[in-house]
Write a structure and sequence with these properties.
Elements: H1 6-19, H2 40-54, H3 69-81, H4 84-87, H5 89-95
Helix pairs in contact: 2-3
């Protein structure tokens, strides 16, 4: 199985960010291959905070059937965090 070199991965990330016109990257301090061993709410809160700080309209995440366990947990956390607007008082009033 071919595994990309770190340099190649960073180049791919950089070109993707340019293509998507991403202005800011927010990185968390989470251990690789251990997302299933940490509190799910911790990841959700981190993503909610990033959505709130950036006022994001769109959230890209992994497919919920991704076989990589960290990607799976990230997908679930993003789906939960994307409902963040429902918790806001103004949004609740708009939904009435």
């Amino acid at each position: 199985m071919y595994r990309s070199e770190i340099k190649e991965l960073h180049e791919d990330i950089s070109s993707s960010l340019k293509f998507l016109d991403v202005e800011k990257v927010i990185k968390g301090k989470f251990s690789n291959i251990k997302f299933n061993a940490m509190p799910h709410l911790r990841l959700i809160k981190f993503i909610e905070k990033a959505i709130n700080e950036t006022e994001a309209d769109v959230v890209f995440t992994h497919h919920p059937c991704d076989l990589n366990n960290d990607h799976l947990h990230t997908s679930f956390a993003c789906q939960a965090a994307a409902r963040f607007f429902q918790k806001q008082l103004n949004a609740q009033m708009l939904c009435l």
